């Protein structure tokens, strides 16, 4: 599977997301630099077929098909879209995702699933207090439980703190398991990742072009500003989304190219 994000942008003069191009491939873990509170989520939504860009296009295996893209690519832990409430227990988060995956989802099943991956002792702990690398592990494992999922976009794991090495190695592990993985990070995390052995050994860990701050400059002292300095009003994610999914905290856009019933939506599409 190859996903190509070509010259996409969102918002007036690209303020919600400047013109961006990148590729996501099966068996590869890649990262892209996107900063500000809004842009990582917007990029994640566009890259997984859940939001239409104002310019450019996103294709999967050479074809524009947003429904297929949503089905095969999960959106993991995107702020205000697919991230769980910080006060919800880890077991409750697991139970909900098991349900979306069509698996038994009682509290007992959730605890057993956590036991299988080595985190049974954290079942009653609020997810907002979970160690960042453990959070990424759990959320990613839950995302790929669905039969159709072949990859995922992980949004801003660095916002939870911790060392980037932990969750980046988890991302590369999923790539080794045959998934396509894109991680959207800020400048500090990108500077760490690009120096890790896993990043140095891969063919091209970040192949994105995002005029927020060039990756080569993330360790420098010079801040690269957006091309347009005009002030604009804050953009809320809910104002950008085309159509909310009936399932709480999830978002789905209908694809103009689909031949299915245009009113049909898919449960769990934003995850």
User: What would you report as the Rg, rounded to the nearest angstrom?
Assistant: 18 Å
Category by helix and strand content: alpha/beta
- Report the mean per-residue pLDDT as an integer: 79
| Principal-axes shape call | globular
Q: Would you mind describing this structure in some detail?
A:
The chain has 271 residues and is of the alpha/beta class. It has 9 helices and 7 strands. The strands form 2 sheets. Strands 3-7-6-5 form a 4-stranded parallel β-sheet, with helices on both faces. Strands 2-1-4 form a 3-stranded antiparallel β-sheet. Helix 3 crosses helix 4 and helix 5 packs parallel to helix 6. The longest helix is centred in the middle third of the chain and has 13 residues. The chain is globular.
Can you lay out the helices and strands and say which pair or pack?
Layout: E1 2-10, E2 17-25, E3 29-33, H1 39-47, E4 55-60, H2 66-72, E5 73-76, H3 90-100, H4 107-116, H5 132-143, E6 151-155, H6 164-176, E7 180-185, H7 187-193, H8 197-201, H9 237-240
Parallel strand pairs: 3-7, 5-6, 6-7
Antiparallel strand pairs: 1-2, 1-4
Helix pairs in contact: 3-4, 5-6
In short:
The protein is of the alpha/beta class. It contains nine helices and seven strands, in the order βββαβαβαααβαβααα.
Fill in the keyword field for this structure.
271 residues, alpha/beta, four-stranded parallel beta sheet, 9 helices, 7 strands, disordered C terminus
């Amino acid at each position: 599977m190859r996903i190509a994000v070509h010259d996409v942008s969102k918002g007036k003069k690209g303020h919600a997301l400047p013109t961006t191009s990148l590729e996501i491939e099966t068996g590869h873990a890649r990262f892209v630099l996107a900063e500000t509170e809004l842009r990582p989520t917007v990029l994640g939504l566009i890259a997984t077929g859940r939001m239409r860009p104002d310019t450019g296009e996103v294709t999967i295996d050479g074809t524009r098909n947003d429904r297929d893209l949503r089905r095969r690519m999960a959106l993991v832990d995107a702020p205000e879209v697919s991230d769980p409430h910080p006060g919800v227990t880890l077991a409750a988060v697991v139970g909900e995702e098991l349900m979306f995956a069509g698996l038994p989802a009682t509290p007992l099943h959730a605890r057993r699933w956590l036991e299988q991956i080595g985190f049974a002792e954290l079942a009653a702990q609020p997810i907002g207090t979970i160690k960042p690398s453990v959070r990424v592990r759990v959320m990613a494992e839950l995302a790929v439980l669905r039969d159709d999922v072949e990859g995922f976009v992980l949004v801003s794991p660095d916002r939870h703190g911790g060392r980037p090495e932990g969750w980046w190695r988890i991302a590369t592990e999923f790539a080794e398991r045959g998934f396509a993985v894109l991680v959207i990070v800020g400048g500090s995390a990108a500077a760490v990742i690009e120096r890790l052995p896993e990043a140095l050994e891969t063919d091209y860990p970040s192949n994105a072009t995002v005029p927020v701050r060039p990756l080569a400059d993330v360790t420098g002292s010079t801040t690269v500003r957006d091309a347009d300095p005009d002030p604009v009003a804050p953009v809320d994610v809910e104002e950008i989304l085309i159509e909310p999914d009936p399932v709480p905290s999830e978002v789905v856009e209908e694809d103009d190219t689909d031949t299915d019933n245009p009113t049909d939506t898919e449960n769990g599409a934003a995850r």
